[in-house]
Design goal:
It is built from 13 helices and eight strands. By secondary structure, the chain is of the alpha+beta class.
Length: 378
């Protein structure tokens, strides 16, 4: 297994903005990511943009605009933006640290395809994340397995807000995205819309269910892979039956025929929070390794406890959520109406109402107990 965090090396700064760097978490096509500690002691993932992007034409203005929009994303299923600086010599953005392995690491290296109960929770939460991202006026444009982290209480989407605004074509002929997890319209250089993220979601779910890319590997070259994405049907053998209509609808070639994230979330909705049982025991062990990084980095115990998964009993397996309906509505029906609000709103309000009711009952019990004590004394 790969180490969760690497050491800082010569040339790495000790601080970025107000954040003290603790180690390297990884690197991607657009920059390097560090584990850092905020002045208040919180863990953060700080991404430093690659220098060639920093000096690109108009990059800083777009970066500032998109980070401002990303700050408005209010979602349980994304990594919250904490701070950013588009005017720094090398622009950077800090998000909340998500202690958990990436979907790519789990499927490719450490576990293999996820079981059906985990897949249904994954699909629902990723749909909710996309609904929140799109509500803030953003399109991810690069949703892929390495941008999905598996935390103890559910998955988180990262890497959003730094790609482009809805309806924007690719800049300077450069295609933004990852081969095999891109929509046909991205490949063809057409304007990007939220429907493109839905296609990426379908490709991710097929990958998580089978361990294979829906349109195959780029063995014959990227051109051959992109041709299959734009002209051929995906290989969905092995996708569980309850999820198959969802994946097939997301991967429709015509963006207008794809469901919206709100419609997907409404279709896949499960009751309550997934808790720790949404993942198999072996993957929970991976989550624990990522949480242990916080101890090794010297972060306060109180800031680490929330990330640690409960130790599952022997033989533990995910508790299955209620099964999804056997079939999805036809695509034209999805395209006919688009919900105005996110599907998770009523569920979140119900949870808050229950918590408030419990608090009121406990307060009343405490007052009665105090009254009896005072009465017995007097």
């Amino acid at each position: 297994m790969r180490p969760v965090m690497g050491d800082l090396v010569a040339g790495d700064p000790s601080h970025i903005g107000p954040f003290r760097l603790l180690g390297r978490l990884g690197a991607g096509g657009t920059g390097r990511v560090y584990l850092a500690r905020s002045p208040g002691g919180r863990a953060a993932a700080v991404k430093v943009v690659r220098e060639e992007y920093a000096h690109g034409n108009g990059f800083r203005a777009r970066f500032a605009q998109e980070v401002t929009a990303a700050r408005q994303v209010d979602s349980e299923w994304t990594a919250r933006v904490l701070d950013a600086d588009a005017t720094a010599e090398i622009p950077w953005v800090a998000t909340a640290y998500v202690p958990g392995p990436s979907l790519r690491g789990v499927v490719d290296r450490d576990f293999g395809p996820l079981p059906e109960p985990s897949l249904l929770v994954l699909a629902d939460r990723l749909a909710l994340a996309l609904a929140d991202i799109h509500s803030a006026g953003l399109v991810h444009r690069d949703l892929k397995p390495s941008h999905v982290l598996l935390a103890v209480d559910g998955p988180r989407v990262i890497g959003f807000g730094l790609r482009g605004a809805p309806g924007a074509p690719a800049d300077s002929g450069v295609i933004v995205g990852s081969p095999g997890f891109m929509s046909p319209e991205q490949i063809l250089g057409e304007p990007v819309t939220p429907a493109g993220d839905v296609f990426c979601l379908g490709a991710i779910l097929a990958y998580a269910a089978t361990g294979r890319m829906a349109f195959g590997l780029p063995d014959g070259g990227l051109g051959a892979l992109m041709f299959r994405v734009t002209h051929e049907e995906p290989d969905l053998v092995g996708v569980p039956a309850p999820l198959l209509p969802v994946v097939r609808a997301c991967l429709h070639k015509d963006p207008v025929r794809r469901p919206t994230p709100e419609q997907l979330a409404g279709h896949l909705a499960t009751n309550g929070s997934p808790g720790h049982s949404w993942l198999p025991r072996e993957v929970l062990a991976q989550v624990a390794r990522h949480a242990e990084v916080l101890r090794e980095a010297g972060l306060p115990r109180g800031h680490r406890r929330q990330y640690l998964p409960p130790v599952p009993e022997d033989g533990h397996r995910p508790d299955p959520p209620p099964p999804a309906p056997a079939s999805m509505p036809p695509a034209p029906r999805w395209a006919a109406s688009r919900p105005q609000g996110p599907a998770w709103g009523p569920r979140r309000r119900r949870r808050r109402s229950r918590a408030l009711l419990v608090a009121l009952v406990l307060a009343l019990v405490a007052l009665v107990a105090v009254w009896f004590v005072v009465r017995s004394v007097t």
